[in-house]
Amino acid sequence: MNYSEMSSEQLLREKEELQKRYDEFKSQGLSLDMSRGKPSPKQLDITMDMLDSVKFEEAYKAENGFDCRNYGVLDGIEECKKLFADLLEVDTKNIIVGGNSSLNMMFDYIAQCMVNGAGSTPWLQQGNVKFICPAPGYDRHFGVLDFFGIEMITVDMLADGPDMDKIEELIKDSSVKGMFVVPKYSNPEGITFSDECVRRIASMKPAAEDFRVIWDNAYCVHDINDTPDKLLNVFEAAKKCGNEDMFIEVTSTSKISFPGAGVAALAASDNNINAIKKRMTIQTIGNDKLNQLRHVRYFKNLDGLKNHMKKHAELLKPKFEAVLRCFASELEGKGIAEWKNPNGGYFISLNALEGTAKRVGELCKEAGVVLTPPGATYPYGKDPKDSNIRIAPSFPSVEELEKAAELLAISVRLAACEKLLKKVM
Amino acid sequence: MNYSEMSSEQLLREKEELQKRYDEFKSQGLSLDMSRGKPSPKQLDITMDMLDSVKFEEAYKAENGFDCRNYGVLDGIEECKKLFADLLEVDTKNIIVGGNSSLNMMFDYIAQCMVNGAGSTPWLQQGNVKFICPAPGYDRHFGVLDFFGIEMITVDMLADGPDMDKIEELIKDSSVKGMFVVPKYSNPEGITFSDECVRRIASMKPAAEDFRVIWDNAYCVHDINDTPDKLLNVFEAAKKCGNEDMFIEVTSTSKISFPGAGVAALAASDNNINAIKKRMTIQTIGNDKLNQLRHVRYFKNLDGLKNHMKKHAELLKPKFEAVLRCFASELEGKGIAEWKNPNGGYFISLNALEGTAKRVGELCKEAGVVLTPPGATYPYGKDPKDSNIRIAPSFPSVEELEKAAELLAISVRLAACEKLLKKVM
User: How far apart are CA A327 and CA A337, in angstroms?
Assistant: First the structure.
């Protein structure tokens, strides 16, 4: 029954029942973490053979004979660049291989824009600088912007990407310098931008000539079922509009090989690659090439990498299903929650009754289940509707997830009852 | 015979003989590189066993059980922090373990000062900012300063460290914000700062409260003979003067394990560690912990690491000796060159007759031996005396070095003859 149709009495009875179930959970002393998109140990086990692939004699040499143990090769060994080029569907010359973190590559790029500009006056010397933030979005993107004192303007995420009407208005302001997006299996909603949306982004004509879109393609091969989404190649679309300098794409193997010991990469236009290399030449003598070599030796090529991802999907699929199954049975038809059924990525996004997400977070925490702090998916940590909850189902086991999801659903219902009862009383 | 005592005729004859020897070398078609402090393949071979130390079951777990393959642990796993703490003689809490590059940690720290200040107004908003540059010094330090538009003020390196009288004058200017130094086996001279010099640096009272000394201890355990230098602990000296916030120390295993796949670390006061972590929290989810684990598993502790360095010394010592032997026989007593006999580090610094270093570089290059470009050891790439030449003897074999050093010595003599003949004619 839809909660909005319940009488106060019915709501009170519902609340009592839920409170009983909640207290039972609480007494179990759970300790589960669904706060971060962290692969499970089993997912990490499947890549262990990678670790001895550079040990044996001469095995430390790149295809061109370069000794990967030594200094040099600023932008990555050729075969590793090729692997990422194939993955992101760009030319090898448009790839820079980084260290173990694409977040680091994004942070460094924004730092570079602040200090050196993007073919322009340093952003730090341009007065108040603003970024567009499609939300709900990735908290660490917002963190980078906040760190550099860049003002964040929230724009809604719609079913097929960010609200482009709004964005096309905002970019008429030349102090609006860019936006971060996760275009495929977006964090947290698991939305993939439609072709039309990608084309509209690719053809934007911002007033700021140093406008940059950070295209965080973190989940480019992270399908979990048999109907994967397909994302349009943004560089191809951008080239048609002479806009290729507007995009900085990043990805990493954090959720392909090892989160703590993967390899990150960046794709960009010739101009941007040159500007970034100019900085990197001063910043480092080169990233870890033995680890680049390990990855190429192990995956061999894009097909190898894609096959590898099927093993991850096998482990992740039952976890997503466990959560979605629980939501369907506990929350459907009650008018107090909406969620999406993503084809890939690392998250399920749940919108609870407005004004209850924080309370749901508290209830879960008190009963031993840690969620991403509600609000984190919005700029400045403030969800204007206090509604969005990000669920990261990858780390716990299926059994644990079933419990955690049930507790979460109970908490969503309990918080809704509390809220609705407050209204009527 | 001292060249200054030679007649024009004697100089001409000397020049002819040298030219003959030079031409002979040139005809050999050498191709040797003494330009960078790059370990030789043999040096890298000795550490190969490190590479399989995290492969076997459960071997990827840190001492506290943490799965090093996964996300987390911003400042490094505890046992790796301890190894660097012992190495740099500081508390574990004052260590941050980085990626594979201490240059990157220094660059990021200066970037942080530019954008966020050092407990102060961002340097970018303080107008013209200056750094003291003891020279000859490390070209990549100068590169970082130049990249950020920081004005470089050259100060002479004396026999036991930088010219402190001069420095104590310069720091009265509050726009002078810091200096980079290599306090042990300095790059390029191989000088280790005397205790008195370290104490003077540690007790400086700069007008700028956000003054920072980047204490690049790259060669802290890089002895090559049985009479190693000892460097005073700068943090202990600084604490006595309430100056511990003034120092940022870095080091790495680039020349201990693998230049391309080592581990870097930073040591600093509680205040500075907090400020750096505040940035890192936004910049990354953590560096490569499997590589940290490899290093701890392999070296075990500081003694293990020191024993390992003896193997490097065995390989490096004959190379330094080959160059120094050649200089002694070819250049001694001629009044045209001075050099130091370092107890460790990666370089030999040669001061040729004033106004000839560039010419020596050209002569060597034409005959197939690449040196660090003369001038590179000074800010803006300009050696005011055009005299200093940095020799990096680590990469070529002893046989190759004997040839390269002889060619270099011949070139130094030839350039001196040319210069002196120009004067008298």
Answer: 9
Please tell me the distance from the alpha carbon of residue B290 to that of residue A100, in angstroms, as a whole number: 11
Task: Specify the pLDDT at position A1.
Answer: 87
Torsional class of B186: left (φ above 0), alpha (ψ -120 to 50), beta (otherwise): beta
List, for residues B219-229, the tens digit of each pLDDT value: 999 999 999 99
Q: Taking CB atoms and an 8 Å cutoff, what residues of chain B touch A67?
A: 41, 44
Assign residue B349 a region (left: φ > 0; alpha: ψ between -120 and 50; beta: otherwise).
beta
Write the CB contacts of B94 (distance below 8 Å, at least 6 apart in sequence). Answer: B85, B235, B267, B268, B269, B270, B273
Q: Is any Cβ of chain A less than 8 angstroms from the Cβ of B51? A: yes
Shortest alpha-carbon distance between residue A34 and chain B (Å): 14
Q: How many helices (H) and strands (E) does chain A have?
A: 13, 13
> Could you give the ipTM of this predicted complex?
0.95
**Cα(B94)–Cα(B84) distance, integer angstroms:** 10
Bridge partners of A156, per DSSP, are A135
Nearest CA in chain B to A56: B48
Q: Which residues contact B255 (CB under 8 A, 6 or more apart)?
A: B37, B39, B218, B219, B222, B312, B346
Which class for A163: exposed (0-12), middle (13-18), buried (19 or more C-beta within 10 A)? middle
A chain contacts of residue B256, beta-carbon cutoff 8 Å: none
Q: How do residues A235-262 score in pLDDT, each as one tens digit?
A: 999 999 999 999 999 999 999 999 989 9
| Burial group, residue B199, by CB count within 10 angstroms (0-12, 13-18, 19+) | middle
Contact criterion met (CB below 8 Å) for B50 and B388:
no
Would you tell me which residues 258-287 of chain A have a C-beta closer than 8 angstroms to some C-beta of chain B?
Answer: 258-261, 279, 281-287
Helix (H) or strand (E) holding B382: none
Residue A150 CA, distance from chain mean position = 20
Q: Which of B52, B146, B260 sits opposite A69 (nearest CB)?
A: B260
Residue B74 near residue B82 (C-beta atoms within 8 A): no
* pTM (predicted TM-score): 0.96
Euclidean distance between the first and the last CA atom of chain B, given in angstroms as a whole number: 21
**Nearest C-alpha neighbor of B105 from the set B336, B262, B318:** B262
Count of alpha carbons within 13 angstroms of residue A242, beta-carbon side = 3
